[in-house]
Design brief:
The protein has two domains: 148 residues, HAD superfamily/HAD-like (Rossmann fold), CATH 3.40.50; 64 residues, DNA polymerase, domain 1 (Orthogonal Bundle). 46% of the residues lie in helices and 15% in strands. The chain has ten helices and eight strands. α3 crosses α4. The longest helix has 15 residues. The chain is globular, with a radius of gyration of 17 Å. The termini are close together. The mean pLDDT is 95.
Length: 221
């Protein structure tokens, strides 16, 4: 095992406050009710269109849906770094993984420009490939972004593992035929992850526990 495909939001980066602020900016601009950070925590995971669909009254049936989505994207593009930071322990983990020769990539349902910008700012020394939502690749849980990352890394999927924090990530890993390591410090609780099919022995509560788990998986074959 020499390749790790990471999710971004809720796994490497705590983006929840900036996402909440951006949703609420769009909601207020069009006169809709704003949301708490805990509501946005439940809404994220399937990309910006689904986030706005869950946030706006009547979802996609709302006549203002497209305009609200556009306002969210514009605001978030300008403010995606205001309050966002790596989770505690993530930078040390990535440095350790890189030192030990692991190939590292990120796949996300966040739009591609923001993914590349954020990964470049925070993880430029470690993450070799960063892929987000775009018109030419299906978003997770389809395995397409994972396959593209593996191709760009020139890595074999049989030696790769997927790391994420949500039910979308569990399904993505399954669809890509990769082992899934679920993290519990992100946007979903351990109970929610287990209900979505996470295997308890493949769950970790702090970034420092990832490398020992990877080594154990390698020993087990």
């Amino acid at each position: 095992m020499n390749t790790i495909i990471f999710d971004l939001d809720g796994t490497l980066l705590d983006t929840l406050e900036d996402l909440t602020d951006s949703v609420n900016y769009a909601m207020e601009k069009f006169g809709f009710p704003v949301h708490t950070i805990e509501e946005i925590r439940r809404f994220v995971g399937n990309g910006a269109p689904k986030l706005i669909e869950r946030s706006i009254p009547q979802g996609k049936e709302n006549p203002s849906y497209d305009a609200v989505l556009a306002a969210f994207k514009e605001y978030y593009a300008a403010h995606c770094e205001d309050k966002t930071n790596p989770y505690e322990g993530v930078m040390a983990l990535l440095a350790d993984l890189k030192e030990k020769g692991y190939r590292l990539a990120v796949v996300s349902n966040k739009f591609d420009g923001a993914v590349k910008r954020l990964c470049g700012k925070y993880f430029g020394d470690y993450i070799e490939v960063a892929i987000g939502e775009s018109a030419d690749v299906k978003r997770k849980p389809a395995p397409d972004t994972v396959y593209r990352a593996l191709r760009e890394l020139s890595c074999d999927g049989s030696r790769a593992v997927y790391v994420g924090d949500s039910e979308v990530d569990i399904q993505t890993a399954k669809n890509a035929s990769l082992p899934c390591i679920s993290v519990t410090w992100g946007f979903r609780t351990a109970e929610q992850l287990k209900a979505a099919g996470a295997v308890e022995k493949f769950m970790i509560g702090i970034p420092q526990n990832l490398l020992p788990l990877l080594l154990r998986l390698q020993e087990e074959g």
